[in-house]
Design goal:
By secondary structure, the chain is α+β, with helices and mostly antiparallel strands. About 65% of the residues lie in helices and about 10% in strands. Helix 1 crosses helix 7, helix 6 runs antiparallel to helix 7 and helix 7 runs antiparallel to helix 8.
């Protein structure tokens, strides 16, 4: 990179241009589902019912509003039947049914002025979305005596995709200029500020191309695009901040650009590489879960982390060699600053704070720990649910339709449970089974069976909410009920039960994977047995405020008016897993920055207290600046009108700020002061292992000079001549 910097940047520019072309149509190929376990009983039953009984699984609902007239008015009934017959002839539509055809009470509003036409749009998510785009304009609006609005799961998914795409564009428009302003404030130099932004843009564009390729082989969630933008900007800025800051420090000592880049990559560069591995490990844990919603975030997260690190370690050094001392050009802070600028990376205030914290270490350790635990207490009351139309704004058409159905129709249409019965049976056997189901405590009404060959299905309406505790108990009761034929239960509550089981089954493995690999990586960095344990425990503790806030705000509905969302009274089952993996990885990112500088100083001096103070002094401002910038990006994502995206953005922003400003600044130095020199202890076999395989920051300049003397390397004069030549080439 330093020998051919212009060629390196030209190749990178061409690859980025190809990534732009490859990733332009990515949004149209992403799905909006992925919360179900593909191997679960409910998923099997859903697919079988879609195939054998399309009318049992409607995903398109036409809400017919008859105005002042009743839905049974002859003119209203005639128009509704005409529309239903027309819908049945549309390509890609099957299983059309209506209140006027079946007379089912669940399809008629209790006030008698609204009723439903239900149908199923066939095909995958992309095909169904295209069919809806074709149908909706010709059915929505006024038709004679009735007014029609389009709803149902397919409309919710389509509107969610459109909303996320629009919100992501707005988030980028907000985040990029604000981030640039903050970077200028951190660096002073406008030139230095543009470098991290460029690295972030390259990482985002590259990840979009990777996701586009993955859509050829597997399902990818549209929500993953939000993580791509957030992590692409956030981590690229973190890594570039760390490298550019160290490069400027080396320049300030009198080193030439090529020498400064070499020292930077040997120290900060290794830290960035190590940090990217720890973040990727946390995100890779989501691959252990079967839901493609979670797996999509792993695909996007791993790709963007590795691309951000690669851009920071490959492209950025080439740019720094070309810029040299011009990296400090266009210092905009001089317009507002009096006197001489302070040396880069001085951080005297952080050093004084570290001294204060360590002097009162027990107080700070206990106070911050108790405070974080108290902030996390609301999570003890968490209730898990499924994502539905309430993810959308209250004025979204599909949300309005579903809310009308929830509020005005009996028995929660669409919220019932379906039982697929497979195997030949007599009418008497079906009747006996129906009687046993109807006698279950949580069953309100049983409809069916509808028989087709050797298969049949029943519909069971639960008492209370469609996904409440009673409905979930009913799922378990139905699955335990004896039948003379094979049964499989599906429906909203069944999907929730299966999703919770899938997550609970794999969560210990995911947590163990993150913990074990993190312990190993931190040991390879520090050579200590105690520091890896501290890192895992303190990182987990830093997330308590995020989880407590998620329940207090998004489940219980506090601040819902201010933040503009509708609380469903529960948290989507996969969201805590996603937020934990992302936030834990980002916390490790900052932890690595701090620990690596402490380790560097401890190896140099052997003074534990001084190494802790020095590490915080040199990285405290950097970590805080990086956290604030990442929080700005996440808050921009949190302006989304989709509740899950809002929760993800605002929750991780809170976790990042708490980690940087409380855990790294107060709790870590306090705990390390209490553990003293034992912090760096390891048994002899592990010390030898670390000496051979450790991933430290590399040689210090003094160590490098000593080695050169020992092996009879070139003289200092020859080094100077080579450095001068390299600077000229740069």
């Amino acid at each position: 990179m330093t020998a051919r910097p212009r060629l390196s940047l030209l190749v990178a520019l061409l690859l980025t241009a190809l990534a732009v072309v490859a990733g332009t149509v990515i949004a149209d190929r992403l799905g909006s589902g992925g919360w179900q376990d593909p191997t679960a009983e409910s998923t099997y039953a859903t697919k079988a019912l879609e195939r054998e009984f399309p009318a049992s699984q409607p995903n398109l609902l036409l809400l017919i509003d008859s105005g002042r007239a009743a839905v049974d008015d002859p003119a209203v009934a005639a128009e509704a039947k005409r529309l239903a017959a027309r819908l049945a002839t549309e390509p890609g539509v099957t299983g059309v049914g209506s209140y006027w055809e079946s007379g089912a009470p669940g399809l008629r509003a209790e006030d008698g002025h609204e009723a439903l036409i239900a149908a199923r749009i066939t095909g995958d998510e992309k095909t169904a979305s295209e069919t809806l785009d074709r149908l909706a304009p010709s059915y929505r609006g006024t038709h004679g005596p009735v007014e029609i609005n389009v709803g149902g799961p397919v409309a919710v998914q389509h509107e969610m995709q459109t909303t996320i795409r629009e919100d992501l564009t707005r988030a980028e428009v907000i985040a990029l200029p604000v981030t640039l302003v903050l970077l200028v404030m951190v660096f002073g130099s406008a030139i230095a500020a543009l470098l991290p932004l460029g690295v972030g843009i390259v990482a985002i564009l590259g990840t979009n191309a990777v996701l586009r390729g993955l859509t050829e082989f597997t399902d990818v969630s549209v929500f993953a695009m939000n993580l791509t933008t957030a992590l692409g900007l956030g981590l690229a800025i973190d890594y570039a901040l760390f490298i550019v800051r160290r490069f400027r420090e080396e320049l300030a000592t009198g080193a030439g650009p090529v020498t400064a880049v070499g020292t930077t990559l040997r120290t900060a560069g290794r830290t960035v590489l190590f940090s990217s591995l720890t973040v990727a490990v946390s995100l890779a844990a989501m691959l252990l879960f079967p839901q493609y919603f979670l797996r999509s975030f792993a695909y996007a997260g791993i790709a963007v982390v590795l691309l951000a690190a690669a851009s920071a370690l490959i492209l950025l050094p080439a740019a720094l060699v070309l810029l040299g001392h011009r990296v400090n050009s266009l210092d905009l802070r001089r317009l507002f600053r009096r006197g001489e600028p302070r040396p880069s990376g001085d951080g005297a205030a952080w050093g004084r704070m570290a001294f204060l914290v360590m002097r009162r270490a027990p107080v700070f350790a206990v106070a911050t720990t108790v405070g974080l635990i108290v902030l996390g207490l609301p999570f003890l009351g968490v209730k898990f649910g499924t994502a539905d139309d309430r993810q959308l704004p209250s004025d979204a058409v599909s949300h309005v339709v579903q809310q009308h159905i929830r509020d005005g129709f009996p028995g929660s249409p669409g919220g019932g449970l379906e039982i697929l019965a497979e195997g030949r049976a007599t009418e008497a056997q079906y009747a006996a089974y129906e009687s046993r189901v109807a006698a279950l405590p949580e069953a309100l009404r049983v409809d069916g069976p509808l028989v087709k060959g050797d298969a049949a299905y029943f519909t069971v309406q639960p008492r209370g909410e469609a996904v409440g505790d009673g409905a979930q108990r009913l799922v378990r009761e139905l699955r335990a009920t004896d039948a003379p034929f094979g049964t499989a239960v599906t429906g909203t509550a069944a999907v929730l039960v299966d999703s919770k089981h899938a997550i609970a089954d794999r969560l210990p493995w995911a947590a163990a994977f993150i913990a074990i690999v993190t312990l190993l990586l931190v040991f390879l960095l520090t050579g200590s047995v105690l520091i890896p344990v501290q890192a895992v425990l303190l990182n987990a503790l830093s997330l308590t405020a995020m989880f407590g806030a998620v329940v207090w705000v998004f489940q219980d509905g506090h601040l819902s008016g201010l933040l503009g969302f509708t609380s469903p009274g529960s948290i989507e089952t996969t969201l805590p897993v996603l937020m934990f993996c992302v936030a834990f990885g980002l916390s490790m990112d900052y932890g690595v920055f701090l620990l690596s500088r402490m380790k560097e100083e401890y190896d140099r001096t052997g003074d534990h207290g001084e190494s802790v103070r020095f590490g915080l002094q040199r990285t405290g401002g950097l970590i805080t600046a990086a956290a604030v910038i990442l929080a700005v990006v996440m808050v921009a994502i949190g302006t989304s009108r989709v509740t899950n995206t809002k929760m993800l953005g605002l929750g991780i922003a809170l976790a990042v700020l708490m980690d940087a400003m409380v855990v790294r600044s107060l709790l870590v130095p306090a705990v390390m002061r209490l553990t003293g020199r034992a912090t760096w202890w390891a048994p002899a076999p592990l010390r030898r292992f670390h000496d051979r395989f450790g991933l430290g920051e590399g040689e210090t300049p003094e160590q490098a000079a000593t080695k050169e003397d020992e092996v009879g390397t070139r003289s200092e004069e020859a080094d100077d001549r080579d450095r001068d030549k390299a600077e000229v080439r740069g």
